[in-house]
Amino acid sequence: MSNSNTRSVNLYGIRVFVDDWPLACDFYEHKLGLKAEYKSVEFSWAEYATGAAKLCVEGYGEEETSTGDHPDESAELLVGRFLGVILQVEDIAASYSDLCAKGVEFTSPPEKQPWGGSLAHFKDPSGNILTLMSE
C-alpha cells in the first residue's frame, strides 16, 4: 500500500554520551577499530562508520548540567547506562577474544540466544553498555 504523503526516513546515527571524550574516541577507534568519519574537538563530537548509520560519540564537561537538546535532562544521567546499541559482527567468538585481548570489559561471554544468534555486552570507558551480535 502506497501513501503519497509518506517520506523516506533513514537512521543517521545513534548518540552515545561520554564523560571523557578523548578517552572514548581512543576506545572506539583503537580498541573497537571503528573509522572516524568526522571529529570536532571544539564540540566534543565524533562520528564513527558502522554501516548504514553512524555511532556518534558526544562528550560533556563537568560544567554542563544538560545535553543542550533537553535542558531539563541531566547530561550526567545519560552516561554509564545500557544503551540498546547493537554492533553486528561476523564471528562473535573471534571478536570477543580479540576485544578481550585489547582490554575491553565484557559483562559476560557471548551467549547463544533462543532465536539462534549470539549476544555479548561490553562497556566503554564511560561505563556505557553496548552489545555485540552475530547471527
Shape: globular
Largest sheet: 5 strands, mixed
* Number of E strands: 9
Overall mean pLDDT stands at 90
Based on CA atoms alone, the radius of gyration comes out at 17 Å
Tally of separate helices: 2
Distance linking N and C termini: 31 Å
Low-confidence segments, given as residue ranges, are none
Helix content: 10-25%
Chart the SSEs and their pairings:
Elements: E1 13-18, H1 21-31, E2 36-40, E3 45-49, E4 54-59, E5 82-88, H2 92-101, E6 105-106, E7 111-112, E8 118-123, E9 129-134
Parallel strand pairs: 1-4, 5-9
Antiparallel strand pairs: 2-3, 3-4, 6-8, 7-8, 8-9
Looking at this protein, list some descriptive labels:
135 residues, 4-stranded mixed beta sheet, 9 strands, 2 helices
Please give a structural write-up.
By secondary structure, the chain is an alpha+beta fold. The protein is 16% helix and 33% strand. It contains 2 helices and 9 strands, in the order βαββββαββββ. The chain is globular. The two termini are 31 Å apart. 25% of the residues are buried.
